[in-house]
Amino acid sequence: MTTYLPTLKQLQYLVALKDQGHFGRAADACFVTQSTLSAGVRELEILIGVTLVERTRRVVRFTPLGDRIAEKARRVLREAEELADLARAAGKPLSGELRMGVIPTIAPFVLPRLLPKLRVDWPDLRLFLREETSQAACDSLHRGQLDCVLLALPYGCGDIEAEPLFEDRLFVAFPPGDAPVGGAASVPPGAIDETRLLLLEDGHCLREHALAACNRPELRAEATMLGTSLHTLVQMVGNGLGVTMVPEMAVDAGILDGTGVVAFPLDAEHAFRRIALIWRKGSPREKDFRLLADALKATH
To answer: Using only C-alpha atoms, what is the Rg of the chain?
Structure first.
């Protein structure tokens, strides 16, 4: 008896549809037409003899069995990718495609120094970058959409390997003319006015690192969480709307230039975040990630 198995392409279409929740967006993610993706999913349903997706004019709804098969398909695709990774790992180091996630509070301050070095040192590497918040990047890593992630620890990201790169101190940024009196070289957490503290909105791990470093519960209760980026927060501080916290890498990269904002190191026991490169435990490309980590350390 001949057994007909689903193709990887059909599974890819199904997983994309699950992730996007829309045939058009799923087709765009797979770089095919909507009719091609829809036909591929339908062929898969005919092949296995069950309905995976309920189709209406406005809603794409997976059946309970469709949900289970989509998650199984995700694991199959990840295993298939690791087959290619095994072959790649046996060849030239840091060559071929590598998909790296970077969180927004690191990307603009590290990548401009890293990318030119990689182009020179590893010309056969095709590095694809994806900027996401920490939770979104961890989810993408475990779904197999990313190979590694550059993020700040501590952060719970599941079953991963990590290569620590460097410590990134936290600074307290003040509006022009509003710096602490007395010429202090650093700012203790107790000197921060909780009613004026501006922090990044939910989803950015820098917010949690800053609050944990201060160890003041009232800051969590009173701080205004509205910044969508560090650059936005600095502009607000520059306009006298409050104070904020910025990492040393951003200060070194010139984020305060031209704003009049002044920043002082936070004087606390754990006033820093640990920058690290992480990847899925057991990945066959571990040697590549270690080499990439070495390149990141060299740019610091």
So the answer is: 23
The tokens of 252 are what?
């070194």
Q: How far is CA 149 from CA 85, 101, 146, 226, in A?
A: 17, 4, 7, 25
230 three-state secondary structure: helix
State residue 3's pLDDT score: 59
Q: Which residues pair with 173 in a beta bridge?
A: 244, 263
Predicted TM-score (pTM) of this structure: 0.73
CA 110 – CA 102 distance, rounded (Å)? 10
> Which residue type occupies 33?
T
Contact 93, 120 (CB under 8 A): no
CA 87/CA 85 separation, integer angstroms: 5
Judged by DSSP in three states, 9 sits in helix
What CATH number does domain 8-87 carry, 3.40.50.300, 1.10.10.10, 1.10.3720.10, 3.40.50.150?
1.10.10.10
User: Mean pLDDT lowest for which of 17-21, 92-96, 222-226, 237-241?
Assistant: 222-226
Give the pLDDT confidence of 142-170 residue by residue, as tens digits: 888 899 999 999 888 888 999 999 999 99
Which residue's structure tokens are 């609050």?
A: 211
Structure confidence by residue, pLDDT tens digits, 130-140: 999 999 999 88
Span 96-300 CATH architecture: 3-Layer(aba) Sandwich (3.40)
Task: Reply yes or no: is the peptide bond before residue 154 cis, omega within 30 of 0.
Answer: yes
